[in-house]
Write a structure and sequence with these properties.
This protein is an alpha+beta fold. It is built from 14 helices and 22 strands.
């Protein structure tokens, strides 16, 4: 096992990893920007190193500074969390060259699955259902030809990156060229790669993902599915496990397809395969996230498996001691992402001082955050400030528990989305589980 791990991240996920390390008896190193000098993860870690200015490009994305911090502190492993450098194959390569263990899959796997076009091809060859679409389109002429074959409506999607950027819906041929130019420009700016491909737009679908845990010996274990269809502009808001829309037969197919995907690329560590599920119960591969997911706590709640600890263990070479037949989903879990944004002002981000904080409590209520009383939220980073997770024996009980927890949660001094989440889970479409990825279109 690693004696020390450097956490190359910030916020609640850095806190989450540090806590797991403490329970495992592993020393921790926090890295921080000048804006995060007073952040919670800095005070919780055994050591901390300032790696640059407030802007993420000069600090949390500064590979040389992070690797130098690992070398100076003698950390033989780096946990990237999610976002930032977690799916950057160059960073994983540099870690390997510096003889530092990157806690995640190999750079080659990250590179393969990060190329959405190549990932689709790989999945097709592995027998995993893929949304009808095209390979990368290199010209307007090819764009029109492929669009005619696929049919409208369709999506133009960036080959690289994620987070909903570089994606454009196209309803007719008149919109095609404008959408193509906008998507390539946004993808180029966001990911340094303007290549795009097209997919048939599947409407009224569910966004379902399957959690994987894979070790170095080739063992692949699937840990059930998560429902992630409550989204606004391709950004997830609420996640739950298991999905109210997945039947036992569909679940069996999803888990089998996810395991095929992992074996096809020789996956190691924790990862997630994302699918679209239509009204007829047919599912299609969308992408693979080669890292820990924001929504991993709902899987932990229903399986009883600490994903962060097992991510660290398999990276250290520990084989998975349990079999697929040992995995049982118990009860129901729901997660609400709490963002420092004002929903009444087009979700304007809100930085500032947390003047009052009350964390909801009670049995099976979990609040993952880096907030504390009088903490000043900096304006330089992602607006997610907390995740509220609950677990109960049934979905109906979990909904009531979440409503109670949201009512109890107090975060004063900054705008946040807690009240909006309370309204969403009270809506009929959420209560009956029929909501789809386009449920919040136009809001």
């Amino acid at each position: 096992m690693f004696p020390k791990i450097l956490i190359a991240n910030r916020g609640e996920i850095a806190v989450r990893v540090i806590r797991a390390c403490k329970e495992m008896g592993i020393s921790t190193v926090a890295v921080f920007s000048e804006a995060d000098r007073d952040a919670l993860h800095v005070s919780l870690a055994d050591e901390s190193v300032c790696i640059g200015p407030a802007a993420a490009t000069g600090s949390y994305l500064n590979m040389a500074a992070i690797l130098s911090a690992a070398a100076v502190t003698g950390a033989p492993a780096i946990h990237p969390g999610y976002g930032l450098l977690s799916e950057n194959p160059r960073f994983a390569d540099l870690c390997s060259r510096c003889k530092i263990k990157f806690i995640g899959p190999s750079a080659d796997v990250i590179r393969l699955m990060g190329d959405k076009d190549e990932a689709r091809r790989t999945m097709r060859e592995a027998g995993v259902p893929v949304v009808p679409g095209s390979d990368v389109v290199a010209s307007v002429g090819q764009l029109r030809e492929e669009a005619g074959r696929i049919g409208f409506p369709l999506l133009i999607k960036a080959r690289a990156g994620g987070g909903g950027r570089g994606i454009r819906r196209v309803n007719s041929e008149d919109e095609l060229e404008r959408a193509y130019l906008a998507a390539t420009a946004e993808a180029g700016s966001a990911f340094g790669d303007g290549a795009v491909y097209m997919e048939k737009l599947l409407e009224k679908v569910k966004h379902i993902e399957v959690q994987l845990l894979c070790d170095m010996d080739g063992s692949v274990v699937t840990l059930g599915e998560r429902e992630c269809s409550m989204q606004r502009r391709n950004q997830k808001l609420i996640e739950e496990s298991p999905s109210p829309a997945v039947t036992p037969a569909v679940r069996e197919g999803l888990l089998e397809a996810a395991a095929k995907a992992a074996r096809a690329v020789g996956y190691e560590g924790v990862g997630t395969v994302e699918f679209l599920l239509d009204r007829d119960g047919k599912f299609y591969f969308m992408e693979m996230n080669t890292r820990l997911q924001v929504e991993h706590p709902v899987t932990e709640m229903v399986t009883g498996i600490d994903l962060v600890k097992w991510q660290i263990r398999v990276a250290a070479g520990t084989p998975i001691p349990f079999q697929q037949s040992d995995i049982k989903l118990r009860g129901h879990a729901i997660e609400c992402r709490i963002n420092a944004e004002n929903p009444q002002e087009n979700f304007r981000p809100c930085a500032g001082k947390v003047s009052l904080l009350h964390v909801p409590g009670g049995p099976w209520v979990r609040f993952d955050t880096a907030l504390y009383q009088d903490y000043v939220i900096p304006p330089f980073y992602d607006s997610m400030i907390a995740k509220l997770i609950v677990h109960a024996p049934t979905r109906a009980e979990a909904i009531r528990k979440m409503q109670a927890a949201l009512c109890e949660m107090v975060i004063e001094g900054v705008d946040h989305t807690g009240w909006m989440q309370a309204e969403l889970i009270a809506e009929r479409a959420f209560e009956d589980g029929t909501y789809t990825t386009d449920y919040l279109s136009g809001r």
